[in-house]
Amino acid sequence: MTEKMKLVEWFENLRRTDIPLVGGKNANLGEMISAGIPVPLGFAVTAYAYRKFIKETGIAEKIYQIIRETVREQNDPKQYEEASKRIRALIESTSMPKEIENAVREAYRELCRKLNAERVPVAVRSSATAEDLPDASFAGQQETYLNVVGEDEVIEKTVKCWSSLFTPRAIFYRTQKGFAHEKVFISVGIQKMVNARAAGVMFSINPVTGDPNQIVIEGNFGLGESVVSGAVTPDEFIVDKRTMKIVERRIAAKKIMYVRDPVTGKTVHVDVPVENQNQPCLKDDEVLKLAELAVKIEQHYGKPQDIEWAVDSDIGFPENIFIVQSRPETVWSLKTAELPEKKVEAGLAKPTEELKVVVKGIPAGKRGIGAGVARVVLNPQEAAKVMQKGDILVTDMTNPDYVPFMRLAGAIVTDKGGITCHAAIVSRELGIPCVVGTENATKLMVSGEEYTVDARSGVVYEGIVPAMTEHPSPLPNSAGAFTAAPSAVGGVFQSVPVTATKIYMNLGVPEKIEEYKHLPFEGIGLMRIEFILASYIGEHPLYLIEIGQGQKFVDKLAEGIATVARAIQPRPVVVRFSDFKTNEYRELKGGEKYEIVEANPMLGWRGCSRYISPWYEKAFRLECQAVRKCRDEWGLKNVWVMLPVVRTLWEAKKCLEIMKEEGLERTKDFKIWFMAET
């Protein structure tokens, strides 16, 4: 049997020249093994095996006839869906010829023998012969199945991979690109599953800015599917190639992960343990080892790469790091012309009060502006009913079934995902502005309403902002880097980039929030209530308790806090409990009766030591009741608190006990900050 007629081939025998036989994914796995890259063991079911299958069973002509009959209007997604449904049913109901079946079964048995295991869990991945070439990319057109165990299931998933050559998105893609369906074939890679502690994606070039000196690594706990699909906003690490040092990191709140169910063997998603959600999924030495491999792979291929990786929980460092896929980066590596330099026009001026930020996220697609009518959808079926050319697609996360509707979109906004998720990759390829990882766009954006999406800074504004949409191009500087995009400062509209560091603002006078609420801040990091005590209430809390008006204190304080919290929802307001010193409390009506005279009030009876004292505890409870009123009665869950002057742990614990008794206990949506002063 000649090389071109082989039914299966082991990865270690493959090279990049074997793309016609095994497709880009499988050929690249073999190529990386030859270059010394750590790749899990596996083999490919060749494209020849697929061709043999459709010809010997007589279904080839039936497949292509269905496409000719069904797809008559290139921009009608429903026609692609109908063709796909019929073709996939045809392929999956056709028995695999025994010669092919026996070859696949024997190869799987040999893999088990090599790994000294009876039933090795494997990943079964599609690898089309026109996929992953420089002018033919679109991530995830065909299917992948994880944690496949046993010969029978490997055979079943191989056929499903074959049928995935005709998903709606795959038929659409080939039609739009002008590829003849009869000339595109598919191979299937069968590869040992890594028992992943963490996994994800990395680029050997910054995929958003095009900076060739940066390696961008995104990851989550468990299997990498959560990162690729955009099911979570992942951790992000940026490594400088020149120094091989981590120059940026963003640790996300990772609430879910994909794992192998030990009972069923299937891939399931589970909650990340609370104690791990805000912890990095990678250690620094693992980040740097991945960066080292990214450089090695890029140098081997001579062009930037898009790489999938996994860290095995069963093996020690550095042998625990594996590369499971690599393909050419398809946006920046294909750019041949420099963007013309543009000057900022005077027309970018826009009154601050006219701008309203709806959501913020991560800029991930074309670094430009998109404006239009939002279509908030939960799935591709809903998108098929409502999406029109130029609409803003708003959804939780995208998958390959969204591609026909993403092509229609003027901009894309998602709740989840990072710069290597599906929505980010496809939007860059389509040249569409995209903002991902907003957390709540599907809740805050309204279908049918108009918005402006600034994909340079990761901000979505309410309404159409003419000054932006008239000058939508990104603004490159002379070095080719993009300048910061617009914010509201001094009444003039300028864009502000989304940074890994959240910028919070201080506030003392509640009414001032109306002047400041349009500024680009993430929340109020310190709301001092002393102004409310002095100006709204004016009376010492113990005096009010003595005369039976303690509720007045609660109501007035709650009103002041609520003024701010309502104005900036859902951004948080961190309310610092009162931090008056004894001399300042004496200035309140009735204060002289309750306050001692101290030589140095700055170091005296204040903060936590005041709250827990038998003389003042009941007044502290009034402050707690005011916060609870905002949160529980008025629904202002964006109100958090801060304890000032935390001097000892036992004082802090006592304060927390009092707060708990008053209904204030730390949860995921109620944070308690400490201010430790020395």
Global structural class: alpha+beta
What integer value in Å does the Rg equal?
A: 30 Å
The share of residues in extended strands comes to 15-25%
**Count of alpha and pi helical runs:** 22
| Multimeric status of the protein | single chain
- The number of domains: 4
Q: Mean pLDDT score, rounded? A: 86
Cα(first) to Cα(last) distance is 80 Å
**Order of strands across the biggest sheet?**
14-21-20-16-17-18-19-15
The helix content, as a percent range, equals 25-40%
Count of distinct strands: 28
Assigned CATH superfamily of the largest domain: ATP-grasp fold, A domain
CATH topology of the largest domain: Dna Ligase, domain 1
Spans of at least 5 consecutive residues whose pLDDT stays below 50 are 336-353, 470-494
Give the name of the CATH architecture of the largest domain: 2-Layer Sandwich
Shape: elongated
Query: Main beta sheet, described?
Result: 8 strands, mixed
Brief summary:
With 678 residues, this protein is of the alpha+beta class.
